[in-house]
Amino acid sequence: MTSPIPSHTACCLVQPLFAALLKRLCRPAGLMVVLLGAAFSVSANAQAVRGLKDAYRGSFDIGVGLSVANVGQQGQHELVTANFSTATAENAMKPASVHPREGVYTWEGADRIADFCRRHGMKMRGHCLCWHNQFADWMFTDSLGREVSKEVFYKRLREHIHAVVNRYKDVVYAWDVVNEAVADGPAGIPCPYRDTRHYRLCGDEFIAKAFIFAHEADPNALLFYNDYSTVDPAKRDRITAMIRQMRRQNVPIHGLGMQAHYNVHWPDTTLIEAAIDSFAQVVDVIHITELDVRANHERGGSLHFSQGQSGTPDQQTLSRFNSQYANLFRVFLRHRDIIGNVTFWNLSDRDSWLGADNFPLLFDRNYKPKPAYYIVRDLAGEKQ
Predict the structure, then answer these.
(1) Which of 102, 180, 216, 273 is catalytic?
(2) DSSP reduced 3-state for 327
(3) What dotted CATH number matches 60-379?
(4) Is 78 a catalytic residue?
(5) What are the residue ranges spanned by the domains of the chain?
(6) Is the pLDDT of residue 289 over 90?
(7) How confident is the model at residue 87 (pLDDT cuts 50, 70, 90)?
């Protein structure tokens, strides 16, 4: 059986033939040089700019979490646009950022990221409309600091969601509507929901209301419940049960956002595949959100984390890092029928909420691709 010719070998064979043909056709030497230079320049540039989004085109979108600082740095623009087809505002669209006080909206940061995406033809995942952290806590109290009724809270929440969704509906195609409302812990805990002001005031009804309000504002947007540690079997089952119950009540939950704050040791692929299979029973689409891989044993979405060790991880850790990213993307590719987006949580180690020393992303602190970048990119061409 004849072995296929590698692309770089084929290029080496074709280029001399192409040059000879041009020499015969183009008598003026200057014209030949110009044409040769242009042809090889285009070929080289095409190879140089082939990024993650092109590699995974036809499988799923590749996204990135961006800060206002990222879009303000001209030098980072090409890196973003070459590799990512979607973007998520890391913090700039959260309630505390855009709606800090009643009647006061501060759109500047979110607008800058949205405008960047509009200019470069990138879709956005909106993040997030309702969360217990970085929330507009004024919604819970009146002018004297007394707790309002849930009816007043819902009125304020609806106004907030409509204002934000309507402002960005031309560029945002999917929203993380409710973030991290399900409790951590083992199977059998008394309450499946996180103990928050939202839950204490409204019970789980606030989840349904948020989705209903978002669907009112943009009936065409995909609406997601988003959470971390979704591969934990007990939490996975609580999330699955919540979504199944809500959808039976015609709550417009379309998708599940699986935050992927993993590490080089955890999780194994069986946990991830079990979670995907479980969620696929109750949603139309899954997005892998907030993907990073820590070079230590920490996991999940907790804001309490160490900054790791300074310097580059040792060789064993680097090998595990590369293997973990490869294993993750093999799983994602096997489930491309249900996975619509894989979003890295920040552009580079320098930008990561985990700190550069945790080594979590495919671009290092100097915005240079790591070996894992090429491993992930080239996996897209393999049969899974």
Answers:
(1) 180
(2) helix
(3) 3.20.20.80
(4) no
(5) 60-379
(6) yes
(7) very high
